[in-house]
Amino acid sequence: QKEVEQDPGPLSVPEGAIVSLNCTYSNSAFQYFMWYRQYSRKGPELLMYTYSSGNKEDGRFTAQVDKSSKYISLFIRDSQPSDSATYLCAMSAGNQFYFGTGTSLTVIP
Amino acid sequence: DGGITQSPKYLFRKEGQNVTLSCEQNLNHDAMYWYRQDPGQGLRLIYYSQIVNDFQKGDIAEGYSVSREKKESFPLTVTSAQKNPTAFYLCATRGRATYTQYFGPGTRLTVL
């Protein structure tokens, strides 16, 4: 079983839709949870990070962590064509980081 | 990418040749990492270094080597022993008081 599971998609939505991206994990020691956005042929860009369970909001983005279910989510409100990218979840319990395979998102104008 | 630079952006290598990928950072971060990214496989850890003159193997270290002589620099050498080196290589850093990684822009290596 992989440490982190993420549906690769692809996911296609119309502009203005609410997007939900999710990851599950198996290691209960994970304490830090991150979401990265990666455009084609570019390095991943840190979008949000949270510690332990709870919600965090930043503009149109909301990250949720449910440690009891070992499940994390990223919601994008009022999605824009510029949000079209691959979204990677990541988590850590110390010095090493574990990544999902990424979900490819396309927002159609 | 911010304060992390990787060079070159694209690199072509003939089979049997060693090649070195550069990673430099001005973030004053202690830890540096090298990942390999292949389609559908996510990021796989090659090597990481917590401090100068020390580094540890990751999940796929075979065929790669690194050095950490300066805090700012963590070059990766892809040797001829690496059987399938064509991939997108990413360097990342982590500060001592942070719990997230920051990535460079990546180097695309193609073996001809």
Spans of chain A with pLDDT under 50 lasting ≥5 residues?
none
Largest interface between protein chains, with number of residues from each side: A-B, 24 and 24 residues
Q: Compute the gyration radius of chain A: what is it? A: 13 Å
Topology order of chain A in helix (H) and strand (E) letters:
EEEEEEEEEEE
- Largest beta sheet of chain B, briefly? 7 strands, mixed
Shape of chain B: globular
Overview in brief:
The complex is a heterodimer of chains A (109) and B (112). In chain A, 0% of the residues lie in helices and 57% in strands.
Kindly describe this structure:
- The complex is a heterodimer of chains A (109) and B (112).
- Chain A is mainly β.
- Chain A has strands spanning 4-6, 11-14, 19-25, 32-38, 45-51, 54-58, 61-66, 71-76, 85-92, 97-99, 103-108.
- Chain B is an all-beta fold and 112 residues long.
- Chain B is 0% helix and 52% strand.
- Chain B has no helices and eleven strands.
- Chain B has strands at residues 4-7, 10-13, 19-25, 31-38, 42-51, 54-57, 64-66, 76-78, 87-94, 102-103, 107-111.
- In chain B, the strands form two sheets. In chain B, strands 2, 4, 5, 6, 9, 10 and 11 form a seven-stranded mixed beta sheet that branches. A four-stranded antiparallel beta sheet of chain B has the order 1-3-8-7, with no helix packed on it.
- Chain B is globular and about 40 Å long.
- Chain A binds chain B through residues 6, 8, 31-32, 34, 36, 41-46, 49, 51, 88, 90, 92, 95-97, 99-102, and chain B through 1, 4, 6, 31, 33, 40-43, 45, 48, 50, 88, 90, 94, 99-106, 108.
